[in-house]
Design goal:
Blueprint (H helix, E strand, L loop, with lengths): L30 E5 L2 H5 L2 H7 L6 E9 L2 E8 L4 H5 L5 E5 L2 H7 L28 H13 L5 E8 L5 E7 L10 E5 L8 H16 L4 H9 L1 E5 L4 H9 L52 H16 L2 E9 L3 E4 L12 H19 L4 E4 H4 L7 H7 L5 E7 L13 H18 L1
Parallel strand pairs: 7-8, 7-9, 9-12, 10-11
Antiparallel strand pairs: 1-3, 1-4, 2-3, 5-6, 6-8, 10-12
Helix pairs in contact: 6-13, 10-13
This protein binds zinc ion.
């Protein structure tokens, strides 16, 4: 099998820069293309990137469809569209203006509670819009307060800029820390806003459903849920204040002006291999040593703590936007976990359950085969070192709007994943 060599996913592609510290980066007039003839014309992703090197293009995503076919989504700044069109690639236009898409996400919503005077239960209107980081923190706190006997706030560690990496731990009838763990990480990549919203929808449904919904009750009685909806708080805040398309953390390093390490290339399994980069300017910069990003170090330690408690049954690292259930491994395309057939069966059932409400298609399989090779990622670590039964990543909606998923898709995206999770928890 011919492996795609995607060592530096984003290297050579420029990025827009803010004109001053306070200004937001503007993507007005950026046109987004999906290039469909990458292999046919360029051979592979790296060669495509070389051909784009003269443009200030931003690669948003790429996807390994088969050995013969890769698609790349790329944003071209105004003024360079003719230069891009001069290249011999076939491409469809995903968006005429990225700036319009960002505006169409809508303003960040206000946080409301169901009832201010009684219990501080968050209102379901939470899922009608995206929110500022401090409102997410309030949401977790209120949700915990409304479920006092079966939950606690948790903190896995501290980000590069000193913000706590927070979340919530939920448990059922067996009591605190009595069952194998379900461990969820959201917003590892800062710009993937839908991931924290969906993670929050899942914990919200568990909290409000535990008393009356037998499926929820049995899931929570069987597993301890540890959910960290925003594990990259520095990057997440930066996407709201400065650059909507920021991906990495906000870590600075000696001898470079480049900022940010890719938290999901900084885990120890497969560290530094294909699908990660040692170049601090790359969007997939792995760091120089496993766990030298404080966020990754915190997550590795937390996962190992859960392993010592009662083991990890299921880990899901939530991403967007490929609509794909990624099984281990990402760092190798030729080796697979021993239980891969069971995992594929569960992923197939999960994808089927996800499709039941809105017919949304989710592809599934080992990440290296169904998306692209990525080394030093969380799911491989949790599979190999933590010895979780299921070490997964799930790429949420959607394949046309990309990262700028309109706010009116938060709820349907959440509902379909809730359907998928209920299937998975009942059958794993
Ligand atoms: Zn991601």
């Amino acid at each position: 099998m011919k492996l795609l060599s995607i060592f530096c996913v984003f290297v050579g592609l420029g990025a827009a820069a803010p004109s001053s510290q306070q200004d937001k980066v503007s993507y007005d007039g950026y046109r987004v293309y999906r290039v469909t003839t990458v292999n046919e014309v360029a051979g592979d992703v790296a060669d495509f990137q070389l051909r784009m090197a003269g443009l200030s293009a931003i690669e948003l995503n790429h996807r390994h469809i088969s050995d013969e076919e890769t698609t790349i989504d790329i944003a071209i700044p105004p003024g360079q569209v003719d230069d891009f069109d001069a290249h011999p690639f076939s491409a469809t236009i995903l968006s005429e203006d990225l700036g319009v898409d960002i505006a169409a996400e809508g303003a960040l919503g206000n946080y409301q509670r169901l009832n201010e005077s009684d219990q501080k239960v968050p209102s379901p209107s939470w899922f009608d819009s995206y929110h500022a980081y401090e409102d997410h923190v309030q949401f977790w706190s209120d949700l915990q307060t409304s479920f006092p006997d079966n939950s606690e706030l948790i903190e896995a560690g501290v980000s590069f800029e000193g913000q706590p990496i927070q979340g919530i731990h939920l448990w059922g009838s067996g009591g605190r820390d009595s069952k194998p763990a379900v461990f969820f990480n959201g917003n590892v990549h800062a710009r993937e806003w839908i991931t924290s919203m969906v993670a929050e929808y899942l914990i919200y449904q568990i909290v409000i459903g535990y008393e009356n919904d037998a499926t929820v009750q049995s899931a929570l009685d069987n597993y301890d849920f540890y959910v960290l909806p925003v594990v990259n708080p520095d990057g997440f805040v930066y996407t709201q204040t400065t650059d909507r398309l920021w991906r990495k953390n906000r870590q600075t390093r000696d001898n470079t002006t480049e900022v940010g390490t890719d938290i999901n290339r900084n885990w120890s399994v497969g560290f530094g291999g294909e699908g990660s980069s040692l170049d601090p300017g790359s969007e997939t910069f792995s760091g120089y040593q496993p766990g030298d990003a404080p966020e990754t170090a915190a997550l590795m330690a937390y996962a190992l703590k859960l392993a010592d408690n009662n083991g990890v049954k299921l880990y899901i690292d939530w991403h967007s936007y490929a609509q794909t259930i990624l099984l281990s491994y990402g760092y190798t395309c030729t080796e697979f976990p021993d239980n891969i057939q069971d995992q594929i069966r569960l992923a197939a059932g999960t994808a089927q359950a996800i499709a039941q409400s809105y017919n949304t298609t989710f592809v599934y399989g080992p990440g290296c085969l169904v998306l692209y090779q990525s080394s030093g990622n969380g799911r491989d670590f949790v599979t190999d070192v933590v010895d979780a039964e299921l070490g997964w990543g799930i790429e949420l909606r959607d394949t046309s709007y990309g990262f700028m998923l309109p706010a009116n898709q938060i709820l349907p995206s959440s509902v379909e994943i809730w359907d998928g999770m209920k299937y998975l928890w009942a059958n794993m």
